[in-house]
Amino acid sequence: MKSLARFWHNQSGSGAAEFAMVFLPFAALIFAIIHLSMLFYANQSLQYATEAAARCYSVDSNNCGSIGNTENFATGRYAGPNIGAAFHATATGCGHTVTGTGNYRLNAVFVTRTVPLTVTACFP
């Protein structure tokens, strides 16, 4: 009986047990922060490429004189992570409109979601 009481009061491995309990939530939080940062970067890069393509489509007829050239210009301007970015240009609405779309796969340790990104830019 005396050895059992001594076993319950022994604290020699408590640090390792506490680390094991805290490590997984901490790792999930770190991965979530990294992937959310990449999501915001992808969205911002998609916005930049779409705005640049809309302006090019409206102003620069040498590089972006057609819809296909404008879409290729936008694809070249996109510098974010691989989200399958696709661009669609039209000459209707408020002027020259370019729409960029992509799907970002948000992957935290316990949660995996696909986040659709859509950006529209218009330049008169």
Strand order within the widest beta sheet: 1-2-3
Strand runs, count = 3
What class would the helix/strand composition place it in?
alpha+beta
Largest sheet entry: 3 strands, antiparallel
Please indicate the count of domains.
Answer: 1
- Anisotropy-based shape: rod-shaped
State the helix count: 3
Percent helix: 40-55%
User: What does the oligomeric state look like here?
Assistant: single chain
Quick take:
With 124 residues, the chain is an alpha+beta fold.
Give a description of the structure.
The protein has a three-stranded antiparallel sheet. A hairpin with a 5-residue loop joins β1 and β2 (96-107). α2 runs antiparallel to α3. The radius of gyration is 25 Å and the shape is rod-shaped. With 124 residues, the chain is α+β, with helices and mostly antiparallel strands. It has three helices and three strands. The mean pLDDT is 89. The chain has one domain.
Q: Any descriptors?
A:
single chain, 124 residues, alpha+beta, 3-stranded antiparallel sheet, 3 helices, 3 strands, 52% helix
How are the secondary structure elements laid out?
Layout: H1 2-9, H2 14-59, H3 67-77, E1 86-90, E2 96-107, E3 112-123
Antiparallel strand pairs: 1-2, 2-3
Helix pairs in contact: 2-3
